[in-house]
Specification:
The protein is mainly α. It has a domain of 48 residues. The protein contains four helices and no strands. The longest helix is centred in the middle third of the chain and has 17 residues. It is globular, with a radius of gyration of 13 Å. The protein starts with 8 loop residues before the first helix and ends in an 11-residue tail after the last helix.
């Protein structure tokens, strides 16, 4: 298993996407959303960007309505 602390964000989320149950137990939309929100808050507290641009990426890549919050997308 790679060292998750030394991974970049993209690599970290790719690892999460392959093995979500390793991080959150039973894989549900609610669980994934809670994990992402927790990541966002922790990153911002540590001076990172968190999920800035995530909603826009979802809108661009999945053709969804712009009036929705990312959790609804």
């Amino acid at each position: 298993m790679p060292n998750l602390i030394d991974m970049g964000e993209r690599e970290y989320f790719a690892w999460f996407a392959k093995r979500p149950s390793m991080f959150i137990g039973r894989t549900t939309l609610c669980g994934v959303t809670a994990f992402m929100e927790g990541y966002d808050q922790a990153a911002r507290r540590c001076g990172g960007r968190g999920l800035d641009g995530w909603r826009e990426w979802l809108m661009t890549n999945h053709q969804v309505a712009s009036s929705l919050v990312w959790e609804s997308v």
